[in-house]
Amino acid sequence: MCCLCSACILLAFVWVVSVPSNGEGIYEVERKQGKNNGVRRILHTNGFKYLDRASIITLVDMVKPANPWHLCTITQVEVKSILKLLPIWFCTVLSSVVFIQMLSLFAEQGAAMNTTTISNFHIPPASMFAFDIISTSTFILLYDKLIVPLYIKVTKREPKPPSELQRIGIGIAMAMASMIIAAIVEQQRLKHAGSKNTRGLSIFWQIPQYVLVGVSEAFVYVAQMEFFATQTPDGLKSLGIGLSMSSSAMVSYICSIILTTVMAITSTNGEAGWVPPDLNDGHLDRYFFLLAALTAINLVLFVICAKRYSPTSFENRAENMEMGTQEQANEA
């Protein structure tokens, strides 16, 4: 069923991006026709130069009316800006590997811990996810209202707010830290499980890793959506937002592949492996350290891609409106 749904989504995506838009969306129109449609033209860039051939005017185009299937405008060619986003998108996919652990291994880790509190109240391991929601919501609400003003007051200068790519990098670094903390907590849990202390380690030891993941999500997902929305052409905003959301959708498959591969390697010779059904027989801490290492590699790759990325340049909207007003005056 999952494969069928994925195939239908892929087919719908291919159909949407391949069907002509009848002069709307990415197609550039004359200023006289499109001065009020709010669509900005994209300035020419030197990347992917082989795609520029589609906008070269030939003798045939000069004699006959330009065929939109043979001759593209600069804005149409500059949709190649989508291609520049793919390395950044790939890095955000890998960074989401950490976030999916809350829904799976964090809950299993909590189930193996002491979930009984005062008056023998039992805490469901999955309810610890509330700390992630609270930390994410709190950070988003306080970032502009409290954190940035407090930073200005402490440093006594007007700081340059971090860009979307910088915020994504900070979020990936915090995700790596959360995996390291989760691994340390698991090491302590295994020590208590092997001792005479039958009650084990309290589940509240998981709070720091949930909080860090929540703040990391606030950095990555918000900045990621802003980045893809601002760096895509006006007619392809939905595609940019779709790219940002697809990273979190694909990560479940990637996590399954990683976990299956790790278990296949570590469960040889009759060993239980790193993530067995009974976590006391395994080494979940090593798996968390592995994810932290993969996240560190992803962070390095992201920094390289972010430094090489050149932002998409759009026509100045204010200048476009001024020219449109001038044209209206000339027509009058």
UniProtKB/TrEMBL annotation:
Membrane topology: Multi-pass membrane protein
Chain's gene name: LOC107900843
Signal peptide annotation: 1-23
Transmembrane segments: 86-107, 128-148, 168-185, 247-267, 287-306
Keywords: Membrane, Signal, Transmembrane, Transmembrane helix
Pfam families: PTR2
Protein's cellular compartments: Membrane
Full protein name: Protein NRT1/ PTR FAMILY 7.3 isoform X1
Cell cycle in keyword set: no
Stored InterPro entries: MFS_trans_sf, POT_fam
SUPFAM superfamilies xrefs: MFS general substrate transporter
Family the entry assigns: Belongs to the major facilitator superfamily. Proton-dependent oligopeptide transporter (POT/PTR) (TC 2.A.17) family.
Principal subcellular localisation of the protein: membrane
